[in-house]
Amino acid sequence: MQVVIVESPAKAKTINKYLGPDYEVIASYGHVRDLPSKDGSVDPDADFRMLWEVDPKAQKRLNEIAQAVKKADGLILATDPDREGEAISWHVLEILKEKKALRDQKVERVVFNAITKQAVLDAMKAPRAVDVALVDAYLARRALDYLVGFTLSPVLWRKLPGARSAGRVQSVALRLVCDREREIETFVAREYWSIVAQLATPRGEPFEARLSGADGKKITRLSVGTAEEAAAFRAALNSANFTVSNIEAKPVRRHPQPPFTTSTLQQEASRKLGLAPARTMQLAQRLYEGIDVGGETVGLITYMRTDGVDMAPEAVAATRQAIGNQFGDRYLPSAPRKYTTKAKNAQEAHEAIRPTDPTRTPGSVARNLDPEQAKLYELIWTRTVASQMESAEMERTTADIRAAVSGRELELTATGTVIKFDGFLALYREGKDDDDDDEESRRLPAMARGDALSRRDIVTTQHFTEPPPRYSEASLVKRMEELGIGRPSTYAAVLAVLRDREYVKLDKKRLVPEDKGRLVTAFLQSFFKRYVEYDFTADLEEKLDQISADELDWKQVLRDFWSDFHLAIDATKDLRVSQVLDALDEILTAHIFPPTTDGTDPRVCPTCGTGRLSLKMGKFGAFIGCSNYPECRHTRPLTGEAAPEGDGVRKLGADPETGLEVTLRDGRFGAYLQLGEAENGEKPKRSSLPKGLAPADVDLEKALALLALPRTMGTHPEDGAPIIAGIGRFGPYIQHGKVYANLDKDDDILSIGLNRAVVLLAEKQAKGGRGGATAGRSLGDHPSGGAITVRAGRFGPYVNHGKVNATLPKSVDPEALTLAEAIAIIDAKAATMPAGKTSARGKKTAKADAGEGTAAKPAKAKAAPKAKTATKAKAATAKGTAAKGAKSAG
């Protein structure tokens, strides 16, 4: 018997079918151990010794793996074909050695790029050892990330209250977003004019030509800068005679893009499908691990973390066959297309992301996928097939036009592009970012050199240059890839961290830096500039790649990094708050003191008129304050005009119903609203602000609506019970009976409608769980009475009978579970539960089975005090939680 280790249970189930009874495939459920989140996990003084800690959730699984390996003839590590997958195999192997589960069993490592029977069987024929160089690269990356995060973050906490963390890649990505915002803030618009002549050929066919030259000088986009210049050109052209001086038609070939890599898939899915990178990777993971197609679980795409663009020869052949069958030989190049990656060391996987079987069209599998999965599969399929199709053939025509006018020589240019053969464009066109220029496609009418043209109109249009657009998640990933920052497996995680830390927010699908993020970036640029430089970070990534290629010693890379980094950290120990404030104030001037519309000094205090405004630091973060403090108590947030009165309190107005004053206040855990003041020892009504709502955006109307929560939205269409919306400890929620559903980030607690609420509640019930779960699948009745159901829970599938909930062993398939098996699992769980904890029906059964009434009484009498104690403890916990919640609001 051979034991095979993979990451996920879905993958284990599928691969076990492929390999047969001589193999036992077990899932590790991803990483099994990591560096503990505490000082000393990486010790530079001990040659970067790393102390690993086993995930408590993984301990049971590792024991099961160890027991299986002890009985096995061999161990096959079949985790994912990237650096992380190699690391998981290494971790499992190290733990098995510690548990002394390995004797003389043969240990092999296999990798497959797709979960298909052929790919798995082929991989089993080509085993190898664990790649030490890849493991070293993982260790180096993990140590670097730990050293930066756990050394730099405490400096931020001490010197910059309100900051949460810094990271080796995350901080550089944040700098990209902040630098773009600074470009936008400091951008000065420039006026320019376009001059377009609307002309017609001798046959009366209209077209447009742009002014491109005047008096021997070239006219560019910004050459005409005033209305007077534009008017002069217009007057000249209105009296000119137009003649075609030259016309040239050139053939142009447009080639298809290569198949997807991780980053290009994330970019295109964002542009075309509106999917965040993290969501794209979740969907791709599901497509890779396998979907039930015709009663068989099949992996639909190859591995989704890759920077390679090539495809296996058999995949290319199958794709070309699909093109010939669907489009005909005209769309098939004479030879297969070969793509090469631009990455210097593409090691994340060998192939691009492609369908495992090109003949499995999107339409043929759509019914087996949910809508998002189907759209992503279609995107991957069309991009892959298009990559092997014939190039599009176009004809680009340029007409030079002479405008003869007394005393001047003016030139105009008209262009047009015609598609002669669509080629791959018949199937796929790449999406564009807002900041990408799309190729203009228009047809010019037939004309010849020397043709006299008639004038229809001369149009002059005023324009102003625009600042660069904010990054979308797609364009930020693209920019990070261009700079060599991060790797395929990190992009989605980096973006998620920036949003979770509230360093950036998404506004109209664009990344906007929060004030907290601006402060962190400004601090790092002032005092740790080298470590947020793009070139430095890219160079470090290249060294990690060299380690994975066995070209550099990983510990030497760590030594070189740490020797300078810890000196930079030490240099901040004596850094005074005033120095930090002066540096941040200077960098963020354009952000916190933008020019006023009337030209007055934006730093003059609006309250006292004599004080100077500057950046100040408080217990809970930065704010703007007056230099005349404490005589003048004017303060305001970093941005926005709303100025809280003294002690961080801003008056919003009076509640029309009670007459009580509504205020916005700064609390220990953030801004909150309060109605009135405390009276007779009772706290006033309060409400925290929903995540994403800036204090500056809160007015009286919105404040009253938040203070009115929880609100009854209406009744549920099925049972007529009320649906309630409110804000709780974990954010905005809706409630129907015992079912609670958290709102999505795009839902507004104040405006969410009843229909949307019903949908969210239904989705929550569909997911199951032991609080407000659905009834589940009924298996039948227990011999003692009462239904037994199998349900989906937060910690996995379980069976329920009355008050008994028993988690199913991982070896049990909930879909194949029988009534007899469920009864055995229920009874085994009930036997371990204290008396009084099972259902009433179960207690009667226990008493009858005892045979003697006196035998059951002691157990019942003993259980009563426990129940009472538990009730008291529960009440005390509830009271403590309520008190903590009230404290957090204040």
Write the topology of this structure.
Layout: E1 2-6, H1 9-19, E2 23-27, E3 33-34, E4 42-43, E5 49-50, E6 53-54, H2 56-71, E7 74-77, H3 83-98, E8 106-109, H4 117-124, H5 132-159, H6 170-186, E9 191-200, E10 206-214, E11 217-218, H7 227-238, E12 241-254, H8 262-273, H9 277-289, E13 291-293, E14 296-298, H10 313-327, H11 362-365, H12 371-387, E15 392-405, E16 408-421, E17 452-464, H13 473-483, H14 491-500, E18 504-507, E19 510-513, H15 515-527, H16 534-548, H17 554-570, H18 577-587, H19 589-592, E20 613-618, E21 621-626, E22 635-636, E23 649-654, E24 661-667, E25 670-675, E26 685-688, H20 700-707, E27 711-715, E28 722-728, E29 731-736, E30 739-742, H21 754-767, E31 777-781, E32 787-793, E33 796-801, E34 804-807, H22 819-832, H23 840-850, H24 853-889
Parallel strand pairs: 1-2, 1-7, 7-8
Antiparallel strand pairs: 3-6, 4-5, 9-10, 9-17, 10-11, 10-16, 12-15, 12-17, 13-14, 15-16, 18-19, 20-21, 21-22, 23-24, 24-25, 25-26, 27-28, 28-29, 29-30, 31-32, 32-33, 33-34
Helix pairs in contact: 3-5, 5-16, 5-17, 6-15, 8-9, 8-12, 8-13, 9-12, 15-18
Question: Could you walk me through the main structural features you see in this protein, from its secondary elements to its overall organization?
Answer:
- With 890 residues, the chain is an alpha+beta fold.
- The chain folds into 7 domains: 2-130, 3-Layer(aba) Sandwich (Rossmann fold); 140-180 and 470-578, Orthogonal Bundle (Topoisomerase I, domain 2), CATH 1.10.460.10; 191-251 and 395-421 and 438-464, Distorted Sandwich (Topoisomerase I, domain 3); 262-390, Orthogonal Bundle (Topoisomerase I, domain 4); 604-639; 649-767, no CATH class; 777-850, no CATH class.
- It is built from 24 helices and 34 strands.
- Strand 29 and strand 30 form a beta hairpin.
- Helix 6 packs across helix 15 (515-527) and helix 8 (262-273) crosses helix 12 (371-387).
- It is globular, with a radius of gyration of 34 Å.
